[in-house]
């Protein structure tokens, strides 16, 4: 890794309520923002922009999208007024050619997969932010290949952030168990950790895991992790586990870094790994 290569992150983002809560996970995200090099811009692959095309936001001022319902008014009032960067969007289009990426100048913006995390990583909203859509029509290996094409951006000061959850099964939530990981969720999350930290290029073998259908009933939250795996494969490196944890039985809050661990370990007070005994009533995920 070059001395100037910007770290990349995968964040297990959990509930939108993490935007407003201070808990072990959000404290760790804040530590990432304090101790990692400040990027030129952030490119986020969020689970919540999942539709039938590959596009990048290209507006100068992306709107804050409240893409959920049933949450408190304070969450709907939250605004993350980061600037966009149309020039960087055009640069991304050129970087990944011959793959096609459309320029979204007026349709999307920043959804909660992005701003719930950045509210803690960079609360000042003073770094330009772009989102890359997840093309729902393409197979999993497409996303790994696209990630490899995005890798040069890290040498140009762009922090690539995948935001989703490796295990995400809303149909199996146990609402009264805020810090629980079921046996199948832990097995699958552990299998993902083994791949990501040793052979990220083989990450798609997880689709053969006996718990895959339970852990990944839909691919939207799983795919953002593939972008970090693809970046690691392009670099010939492995991902670094930064946070491990579970919520309500069927959500994994695991976070990984690429080129991040050394920077974080320079700071003894950095909450890079989830502290033990996080109060369950404070997780809200």
For this entry, give a set of tags.
285 residues, 12 strands, two-stranded parallel ribbon, alpha/beta, disordered C terminus, single chain, six-stranded mixed sheet
What are the SSEs and their pairings?
Layout: E1 8-12, H1 24-35, E2 41-51, E3 55-57, E4 63-64, H2 73-76, H3 86-95, E5 102-104, E6 109-110, H4 112-121, E7 129-135, H5 140-150, E8 158-164, H6 183-196, H7 212-215, H8 223-235, E9 240-243, E10 246-247, E11 251-252, E12 255-258, H9 261-265
Parallel strand pairs: 1-8, 2-7, 2-8, 3-5, 4-6
Antiparallel strand pairs: 1-12, 9-12, 10-11
Helix pairs in contact: 1-4, 5-8
Describe this structure in words.
It is a single chain. Helix 5 (140-150) crosses helix 8. The protein is globular, with a radius of gyration of 17 Å. The strands form four sheets. Strands 7-2-8-1-12-9 form a six-stranded mixed beta sheet, with helices on both faces. Strands 3-5 form a two-stranded parallel sheet. A two-stranded parallel ribbon has the order 4-6. It has 285 residues and is of the alpha/beta class. Helix content is 29%, strand content 18%. It is built from nine helices and twelve strands. The two termini are 34 Å apart.
In short:
This protein is of the alpha/beta class and 285 residues long. 29% of the residues lie in helices and 18% in strands.
Rg from Cα: 17 Å
Beta-strand percentage?
A: 15-25%
Low-confidence stretches: 274-285
Q: What is the 3D form? A: globular
What is the average per-residue confidence, as pLDDT, rounded to a whole number? 90
Percentage of residues in helical conformation: 25-40%
Structural class: alpha/beta
Q: SSE string, helix = H, strand = E?
A: EHEEEHHEEHEHEHHHEEEEH
Terminal-residue CA separation: 34 Å
**Tally of helical runs:** 9
Query: How would you characterize the largest beta sheet?
Result: 6 strands, mixed
């Amino acid at each position: 890794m070059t001395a100037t290569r910007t770290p990349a992150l995968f964040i297990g983002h959990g509930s939108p309520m993490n935007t407003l809560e201070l808990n072990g996970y959000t404290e760790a995200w804040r530590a990432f923002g304090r101790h990692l090099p400040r990027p030129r811009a952030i490119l986020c692959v969020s689970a919540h922009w999942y539709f039938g095309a590959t596009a990048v936001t290209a507006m100068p001022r992306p709107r804050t999208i409240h893409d959920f319902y049933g949450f408190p008014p304070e969450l709907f009032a939250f605004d993350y007024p980061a600037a966009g960067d149309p020039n960087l969007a055009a640069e991304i289009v050129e970087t990944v050619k011959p793959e096609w990426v459309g320029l979204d100048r007026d349709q999307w913006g920043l959804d909660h997969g992005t701003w719930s995390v950045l509210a803690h990583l960079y609360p000042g909203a003073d770094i330009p932010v772009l989102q890359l859509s997840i093309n729902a029509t393409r197979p999993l290996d497409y996303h790994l290949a696209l990630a490899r094409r995005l890798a040069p951006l890290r040498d140009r000061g762009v922090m690539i952030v995948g935001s989703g959850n490796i295990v995400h099964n809303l149909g199996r939530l146990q609402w009264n168990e805020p810090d629980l990981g079921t046996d199948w969720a832990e097995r699958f999350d552990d299998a993902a950790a083994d791949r990501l930290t040793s052979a990220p290029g083989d990450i798609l073998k997880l689709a053969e895991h006996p718990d895959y259908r339970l852990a990944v009933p839909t691919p939207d939250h799983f795919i953002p992790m593939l972008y970090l795996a693809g970046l690691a494969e392009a670099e010939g490196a492995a991902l670094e586990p930064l946070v491990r944890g579970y919520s309500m039985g069927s959500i994994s809050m695991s976070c990984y870094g690429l080129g991040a661990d050394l920077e974080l370990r320079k700071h003894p007070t950095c909450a890079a790994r989830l502290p033990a005994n996080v109060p369950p009533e404070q997780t809200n995920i």
